[in-house]
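Holo prediction. Input below; ligand is iron/sulfur cluster.
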Amino acid sequence: MEQNLTTERSGSPASIEAEAKSPTRKKVFVKTYGCQMNVYDSQRMADALAQDGYGLTDAIEDADLVLLNTCHIREKAAEKVYSELGRIRVLKEERARQGRETMIGVAGCVAQAEGQEILRRAPVVDLVIGPQTYHRLPSVVRRARAGEKIVETEYAIEDKFEHLPAPERKAVRSRGVTAFLTVQEGCDKFCTFCVVPYTRGAEVSRPVSQVVAEAERLAEAGVREVTLLGQNVNAWHGEGPDGSEWGLGRLLFRLAEIPGLDRLRYTTSHPRDMDDELIAAHRDLDKLMPYLHLPVQAGSDRILKAMNRRHTAADYMRLIERIRAARPDIAMSGDFIVGFPGETDEDFEDTMRIVRDVNYAQAFSFKYSPRPGTPGAEMDNQVPEEVKDERLQRLQALLAEQQRAFAQSLVGREIDLLLEKPGRIDGQLVGRSPWLQPVIVDERAGRIGDIIRVRITRAGSHSLFCQPVDWKADLTEAAKGGSV
Ligand code: SAM
Ligand code: SF4
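Structure of the complex:
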């Protein structure tokens, strides 16, 4: 997933922090763990609660309702939630002494996986709600406020997206010029290391009409870049207006017609679901950014088989060749797991080899974390922690070197830059390159939401620096020192 899965977003989700906060409304504080799908879910929960009179706060001590939107992909993520609940208990007691009520809710994949167990381990929690029932959140909160302890983790029969309210225009605007849009949830692949099929359930795709309507609303409110999300986004399929079955490629062609929407992305994809139409979309659609997150996980066929990935290393390499033939400037991103049960030194060398062969612009890499209930956790040839550590270090060093080299290769090149937000240093704006890198520019270069032509002047450790191509040399590049 884009943004490291271990990422925590403190306060209300970063993109919704700026929403209107009225002193008279009840306040909700949302902390989001994990991937972009959780960021999107947090926004939709905030939209649902807004209808019930809740405004967002980024000060947890002011919150009448604290929601933790959790991630269960690796062990540490769940343990972090329990320690956070310990801290929140102290806060709840302190507010109770002041005569103020505080409801505590746990949402997301830990809620789905652990259910009742959360109430047992953390009695401070008032409600537990799984990802498939967010549309019921307002009524769940009302019942919890009446004194009921609630665990709502059944998969809903109704389509939650049909019942979740659309965000208000002002809420969309406050979230910025880029937006996430979940088009697909759940997964039927059952990789042997992964909890997603158990926490998010079977693969479900949203219909074309729903996705197009949501994208149009976003564009109309000023969003210029949309990232389509799904645990397995390129498995998305839906009935088009002509009655035929559409795949993700066709959907992207349709979304590219929406006026004002200038950039499209999607994540995360499975190699088995990259079909010809999707590759053609990369060839034909200028709006589809030349960046693809396509996890391979490992380079050894033996390990890929044990992972139930349903592709070999050679299949993956052939696929990348086809994608690069269609879109030569495409930058590749991926996910890797080291230390899957049974991984030998030779297997790990195969992973290092595939990384060298692909040459990634960016990637995420993790130590294998046995997840209860998955086949991998039952395998008896688990790899010792210190071996995983050593392999991860070597892999990350190689990936970091490739990422640096890719950034460096852009110096001197002209690119289009979407200006997204103010930089950390006064006088700067931060934008995104087509390859998702943060790029810093002098604020006089344009306004947030503009797409401007710039020349990359320097590659820093975490960001690129640039100058608009039409500037004269005496307008120097923005603050040389900082990075985002
Ligand atoms: N659907 C995507 C795919 O098939 O590549 C991946 C989605 S998964 C939610 C995100 C990433 O988390 C995976 O690509 C994998 O690298 C990592 N991951 C999942 N389960 C893991 C585990 N048990 N231990 C370590 N990393 C894990
Ligand atoms: Fe998990 Fe595999 Fe599904 Fe990706 S494809 S979400 S790794 S089970």
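The chain is about 35% helix and 20% strand. That is the main takeaway for now.
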